[in-house]
Design brief:
- This protein is of the alpha/beta class.
- It has a single domain (about 1-145), classed as Rossmann fold (3-Layer(aba) Sandwich), CATH 3.40.50.9100.
- The protein has helices spanning about 20, 25-40, 55-65, 85-90, 130-145; strands at about 1-5, 45-50, 70-75, 95-100, 120-125.
- Strands 2-1-3-4-5 form a five-stranded parallel beta sheet, with helices on both faces.
- Helix 2 packs parallel to helix 5 (about 130-145).
- The structure holds 1,3,4-trihydroxy-5-OXO-cyclohexanecarboxylic acid.
- 1,3,4-trihydroxy-5-OXO-cyclohexanecarboxylic acid binds near residues 100 and 102.
Length: about 150
């Protein structure tokens, strides 16, 4: 099984940005945690972070052409603005889990809209960086063929 692990704007600043919302784990540490879990499951993980909306659209399309089996995405602030990311996930029809580190539903009004959610098989919010591991486990359990890389 191959999963694309995508992160949007400012998630490269994890560990530095607003620790009260996003914790103290840095982006590279997060990737290591996810890689470790993927290794345990014999899942191949492709990591990508960008601050640019179009680059994320390109990567979602790449996941399709690269034969990925699913996507874990934290679109950051593009969650609340981007129809392009919604359309990209709809275009590729890959099972996609939306992850937010913070509990977005308890934050500002402008964070209450998620465009991408309509195209996602699951949404995980407020579980910190553990939410990414839950997303990998969910995709593995529901869409993975066991013991296959
Ligand atoms: C976030 C929540 C978004 O509202 C915010 O813009 C982010 C991070 C989260 O992980 O909690 O950049 O997606």
């Amino acid at each position: 099984m191959k999963l694309y692990i995508l992160n949007g704007p400012n998630l490269n600043m994890l560990g530095i940005r607003e620790p009260a919302h996003y914790g103290k784990v840095g982006y590279s540490e997060l990737c290591e945690m996810i890689r470790k879990r993927c290794d345990e499951l014999s899942v191949e993980a492709v990591f990508y972070q960008s601050n640019h909306e179009g680059a994320l659209v390109d990567k979602i399309q790449e996941a399709y052409f690269d034969g990925a089996d699913g996507i874990v995405i934290n679109p950051g602030a593009y969650t609340h603005t981007s129809i392009a990311l919604l359309d990209a996930v709809k275009s590729v029809s890959l099972p996609t889990v939306e992850v937010h580190i913070s509990k977005v539903e308890e934050r500002e009004d402008f964070r209450q809209t998620s465009y991408i959610r309509a195209a996602c098989v699951k949404t995980i919010t407020g579980h910190g960086t553990a939410g990414y591991i839950e997303a990998v486990d969910y995709l593995y359990e529901n869409y993975g063929k066991k013991n296959e890389r």
